[in-house]
Each structure stands twice: as structure tokens, then as C-alpha cells.
Amino acid sequence: MIGSAEQIGTAVASPTKEFFVRMLTRDIELQDALLDLLDNCVDGIIRSGTISTDNSKPYAGFKATLTIAPDHFVIEDNCGGIPIEVAKKSAFAMGRPPATGTTAHGATVGMYGIGMKRAIFKLGTEALVESRHDTGFVVEFTPDWMRDDKWDELPMYELADSKLPEKGTRIEIYQLNDEVKSSFLDGSWIDEFRRTVARHYSLIIAKGFSVSVGSDAEMAAGVSPIDAEEFKLIRTTGGTDQRIAPYVYAGTLGDVEVEIFAGLYRELLSEEEGEEEEDTRGASDDAGWTVACNDRVVIWKDKSRLTGWGEATVPNYHGQFIAITGIVLLRCDDPKKLPLTTTKRGIDAASNVYSEAKDLMRDATKHLTSFTNKWKKFPQKLEEIYKASEYVDLPTLRSLPAALPMILSRKVEGIKKYEPKYPEPEQEKTSLRVSFVALKTDVATLAKHFFDDVRVKPGAVGEAAFNEALRATKAPEK
Amino acid sequence: MSGASIPYYLRPHKSVDRRLFLDLLTRFERWKPLAEYVYVSMGAYPLEDHKLVHRHLGITRLIAFDLEELIVARQKFNKPIETCHCLHKKSGELISDLDAILSACSFPEPEGLIVWLDYTSPGQLGHQVREFEALLNKLRAGDLVRVTVNAQPSALLEPQLPGAIPLLVTDKQERQFKNLKSRIGEFLPSETSPKNMTQEGLPLAISKSFGAAALKALPVTGDNIFCPLSIIRYADGEQMLSITGAIVPRSDRSAFLERLDVQSWPFVSTDWSEVHRLLVPTLTIRERLFLEKGIMSKNPVDLVAELGFGAASDIKMDEFLECYRRYYRFYPTLLSAEI
Predict the structure, then answer these.
(1) Neighbour count for residue A184 (Cβ, 10 Å)
(2) Facing A279 at nearest CB: one of B92, B184, B185
(3) Which residue, among B240, B237, B331, B316, has the nearest Cα to B11 in the 3D structure?
(4) C-alpha span between A293 and A339 (Å, rounded)
(5) Residue B3 — pLDDT band, cuts 50, 70, 90?
(6) Tag placement on chain B: N or C end, fewer CB within 10 Å?
(7) Of B181, B183, B220, which is closest to A189 when you measure between CB atoms?
(8) In A163-301, which ranges are continuous DSSP H helix?
(9) Pairing mode, if any, of strands B239-249 and B113-118?
(10) Which residues in chain B have their CB less than 8 angstroms from residue A285's CB?
């Protein structure tokens, strides 16, 4: 291209380390960087290939402990460790070298090969990685290496025999960055992180994996492992064909296995509660969609367009829909086919698989919002529809597709669905809702008149006045 | 029952708690003078706390508010000085319109703010935590916030119908926990369980939940931090929890606490898990004067022996004396008088 011109030198084109580190850590929150380290633990178990898939607690016995202190951080697991050859060739490379990109080891969530390095850069400037799978080793990141602009290879040392006898990995990080220090100093931050683990690891913890997070003192005192946040839906057990039950969609989209469950997790709001919620939120809001890829929750209780709210004919989320929730489980042995992002929070919305799954999610949301809207007008009868209701947990939900009369979805090939018929208020055909605004003092006057109690709810006062007027009108004149 | 309608002289705990608040404000002045601050509080009809901050700290910029029009009318009659503005507002409105309200009261650009949200309704805890978070979002370094909320476990339970079979403690705690979770689940400490639904455990869980809300409002990446100063639980009827703290620059936190010499202050809580219990039995004047004379020099066992009785108003004297040593200066002496 240049022709016959003589080369007179070279121009530097490699990335500076400072730029690389800053860019890599800029878009990830501290919590997500820590979760990345946890993901590596779980991927370690899966890659070891020792777990059985027909067991409901395949991860039992595997654990990770995260020790959080203002001047250091330690994560230790017993999840199989890094094979020495992998450590030499790829585990410490920035990004996974092309030749090692195959993932024939099962449904992991790591795929870019940056999680551990990015987490170390995010946290501090000095780190020690110890691991034992076959030959145990130690790799050290020094502040000098972090500052230096060269990408020198990291020296490896042999690990003492007494360390990590259970096969696992231990990462210690020192010289913490300022944001990390302030976070680790704050007990409320640490507890917030525990809640994040309880959510984003809910499925993995439910399968037996144990995660403990605490300070040195808490670890010494034996802090208890984090409990998973539950996912459950209401089902009524009455014999009629109209009932409250989960919407179920299951099947495959390409190579990705899909399971979707949606329904109600609590009672609908009464009219009064609904109005209050519009004003300030007073209830803890567990509504919304949760999405998990290979068991790792990447979206927790989302109520935005990301999960189909306010798209097509689905209304925007608001307080009235507080009872509606759903979960999407996507599974694939090749994580590249899942809509995962590098931070594993949020989703690759351009993914074809997710866009088809979202069509199904919107169907379920639409059914459930219509149900909510119908009953909004007749709150008095609402309690009856919950009679004889029970909670269904996720393992039970996942067993439903085999037992329910599932039908094929016309729209999305490869998916079968079960869409229950929800109860409808009988009065919808014969009755109307009357609502109007009146002066507080007038309502109080009538409340005193009808009930001798000014604290009676305005709706009851209005109804008493209406009934009184109706009785007087209907009464035969004397 | 919230106690809102019970006269103040029948609520000795609340009275002492308020005096402790005032003492804390006095100590805060070691960091920053408060005379030019604006004081915002519900105040109820007598505006007791407005009177106190005016008299003791010289604060003249006062705002009182209530959602009942009648109470506001009564506040207007009872206000201690002309520059006390009494507004017909809900707490949520006050917070969302805070800047506009300050300016409408002719207090634009105040030196600082002291806001006391004195909540009463136990069913509204979810709103209260979120309003606290919203309030912190509106404030700046140097401002003080105090919240009082119901922390009575039984208030988390719907009243049982007469004649119903009484619930077992474990069933009660399950329900209380479920209700608490449905209100403030995302703020609750991760280790909270039904077992914590006790007189001691619930205030601790609520306190830490307010800690979580403070962190949401002022994340660790920001310049400021909400620093709790005093967390107290007390019960004149139902148990209440009062939390007082200040927004300070993150980098000044240690210097601030050192300047206030908080460690020498008996009811200090610099951590959300330090909840103090305040015990205030009704004493006769003779009992009070006797105890005041000996409280710092004699040990509680001797004092109880000299008194000759082990409990007053259902409060054990030895537990009380331990607490009394720390607050006896503020024990309210209330006399009936004919005017």
C-alpha cells in the first residue's frame, strides 16, 4: 500500500495501562465487580464437571466467603480452583485468547474473560491470587506493575502445600481505592451488598451454594450464609375453571431453553391503598420481572420497557399493578447465545432470543393488568377470590409444564404455554362504579348522621347516602 | 394509639427524649452555631419543641406544619413568636416543596436546617422511611434531621377479633415480620427474621433500615454522609424510636464527632446498631430529689435499698437507675398549678 517508501521507525499503538484500567473499571459498579468474582466461583464448579444435574441441590457443599475490611478484601472458595495450564495461558490474560474460547463445560455465565482482572483493578492496586486445582500456584499483582506502562508477564510461584487443601481459589486485595474504602467502612453498604447477593444469587443459593459476607470479626464469630430471596406466586385451589394460577411458557428458542412464570405474589391493592401508592410509595415493591441467565439473575424486579411494560398494548407500570410479578429463566450451554452483558446487570436488549421471550412476557403482563383493572372497580368482592389460595415456589413452578395442559404458541415457535382464566367480577355486567368528590366537612356531617362516627371511610358514607336516597325514591308514597 | 392526643405532661419519656435532643443540639453548636438555622417540625398544637429551640438556642426562623386544618389553626394561636409559620401540609408535601416553602416563609438561603419528622402512624412506616430518604436528598452538609417512628411490635399486627383464639408468639412474630417486610423489605437488614420482632429487636431493625435509606440518599461515592448521633427507644404507651443525625462532609466526619466530643455524651449512637433505651417512671417530687442527690455518688443497690421499693410504674428501679444516671438533669418536674 505504501509502495516502496523506506520505513523510518515505528509508532506506539498499544493501549497504555492507565487508559485500559480506567476504561475497564469505569462502567462497572463495585457491587457488580464483586459479583463477577462470585460468578467465577460458580463457573469453577460447573467447569469441574463434578455436579449432577438431576439433584435439586447440585451446589451443596460449595461455598464462597467474602471478607470485607476498610483496608483489605479477601474472597475464598472451594470451587475447584484454576488448572495450572489455564493459569499460565489464559486466566490472567486481558480477555480470553481466541483458542480457548470454547465452552464445552456447561452452563456458565463467564464468557469474556475479564471478570477477575476487572474486579482487582476496581478494588485496589495490590493483589494476591492463590489457587489449587492440580498444581497450586500464587500470582502477585504489585503496585509497581499496576503503575508501570508495560504489560510484563506476571510471575507465578508454587503454593504452600498447607494452603487451599480443598481445591479452590483465594484472592486477597490490598491498597484499596478510595471509593472502595468508603464503601467497606460503611456497615449499611455491606448489608446492601448482602441484599444484592440474596437477589442476584437467589437461584444459585437455592441450589445449595453458600455465600458469606462480613468483616474479619464477623467471619471469626461465624456469620451465617446469605439466605436467597424467594420467588413465589399465588395459586387458588378452588375447583372452578376460573382461578388465580401462574401463567406458564416453556420451550426452546434456538439453542436456548426458556421458562417463563408470571402471576400475582400478593393481594391487589384496595382503592384507598392504590391512591396512597400513587402519592408516595409505602409498600415494599416486589412487582416486576426478574430475568436469569444460566441461573444468574441479571434483572431484578424490573418495571420498565426493558421487560415490556409500556410497550405495545401493555400499560406503563404504576402502583395499581403492585401485585404482578414474573420470572424468566434462560439456559444454554454456550453462554454467548444468552443475552448477557459484560457487567451481568441488565440485558442485551437487541438479542433475538430476549426479544422473543419479551413477546411472551408482554402477553402475561397484559392478562394480569387487565385482571387488576377489572377488579379495581369492585374491591369489595376482592377478598373472596383469594379464598383457599396458596403460594407456589420456584421448584414447584418449574415442574408445572410437565403436568399442565400446555398448548403450542402460534406466535413463537418452539414454545408451549398455559394461560389460565382468571376470575371476573360478576357485577361487571350489571353494576357501575360511582365516584365523586365532596367537601370534607359535608362528608363528616353525613358520617356523623349515618354512623355517629366521623372516622368512617368516605366510600362507606357515600354508599350509605346513596342507599338512603334509593330507599326513599323506591318507597311507595303514602 | 399514637399518643398524639395525650397531653404532654402524661408523656414523661417523650419529654425527656426531647430534652436530650435539645442537649444534643447545644452540643452541635460546638461545630456550628444554630441561631441562624431554620427549625422545621410538626410540633402538634402546643408547639412545645418550637418554644424550646427558640428559648434555648435563639432560633427565630420557625416552621410548624400539620395535615389537620384545626391543629394548624391552634398552632397559629400558640406560636411562640411572630416569625413562626404554621402550614397546612402533609410531610410528603413539605419535603417535595421544601425550597419553595422556605422561600415563601422568607427564609431563602438559610444557614442550615433542622427538620424533625415526628411520625405517629405505625401503618405508614413504608412512607416514613421513603420520606426520610427523600428529605436527605434535599438537604446539604450542616443540616440536622430527626425522625420519630412507632417501633411497637404489636402495632405491626392487625388487631385480633374479640373471641378469636389467641395467636402463639411464633405465629405473631411471623405475621409481624411479614407485614414489616411488605412495608420496608428493601431496606431491612439482611439478617432480620421473625425472631427479631421483639421490643428490643424491632427498633434495631428499623434503625438499620433508616441507615440503609440514608445510604441510598447519600451513596458512598458522594461528598456527604448522614452521621447518626443519637438513637433512642422509649415507651409512654407504645414504643417509639427517635433517630437524630447530621449531614456532614464525608472527609470531616471524624473531626465533627471529635469536636462534639460525642463519646462523653451518654446517649450517643454513631452507628445504626447502637439503640439506647430510655426509662422514665413517674416519680414523686420527694423520690426525685432523693435520687438526684445520691445518683452520682451512691451505687444503685444502696439507692434501691434506701428507697425501700423495687419498681415504679412497672419499671424496675435498678434498670431505671442505670439509665437515670445519664439523664437525671432532664427529668421533668410537672406540678399542677392554678392560674
Answers:
(1) 22
(2) B92
(3) B237
(4) 8
(5) very low
(6) C
(7) B220
(8) 178-185, 187-200, 202-206, 216-221, 271-279
(9) unpaired
(10) 186
Instruction: Say yes or no for a CB contact (<8 Å) between A280 and B271.
Output: no
For the cut 70, the answer to whether the pLDDT of residue B8 exceeds it is no
The pLDDT tens digits for B281-294 are 888 889 989 998 98
The SS3 call for residue B1 is coil
Identify the structural domains of chain A with CATH numbers, from first to last.
17-221 (3.30.565.10), 232-428 (no CATH), 440-474 (no CATH)
**Predicted pLDDT at A99:** 58
With 60 as the cut, is the pLDDT of residue A323 above it?
Answer: yes
- DSSP H or E stretch at residue A72: strand A72-77
* Cβ under 8 Å to B: A residues 220-239: 224, 226-227
CB contact under 8 A, B215 and A198: no
DSSP letters for A294-327: TTEEEEEEE-SGGGTTTSTTPPPP-GGGTTEEEE
Residues in A closer than 8 angstroms to B130, CB to CB, are 280-282
Check pLDDT > 70 for residue B1: no
Q: How far is CA A192 from CA A30, A71, A291, B74, B190, in A?
A: 12, 19, 20, 44, 8
| Average pLDDT score over residue span B123-130 | 92
Q: How many CB atoms lie within 10 A of CB B174?
A: 16
* Backbone dihedral angles phi then psi of residue A300, each to the nearest 5 degrees: -115, 115
Nearest to A171 by CA among A36, A74, A84, A67: A74
The set of cell numbers assigned to B311 is 419498681
d(CA B235, CA B150): 10
Complex ipTM: 0.76
Kindly determine whether residue A226 and residue B190, on different chains, have CB atoms separated by under 8 Å: yes
Q: Which residue of A has its CA nearest to B129?
A: A282
Tens digits of residue pLDDT in A262-289? 999 988 877 777 777 777 777 777 899 9
Give the residue with greater pLDDT, B336 vs A1: B336
Sheet with strand B84-88: strands edge to edge? B84-88, B61-66, B38-41, B113-118, B144-150, B239-249, B224-235, B276-277
B184 interfacial to chain A (CB closer than 8 Å): yes
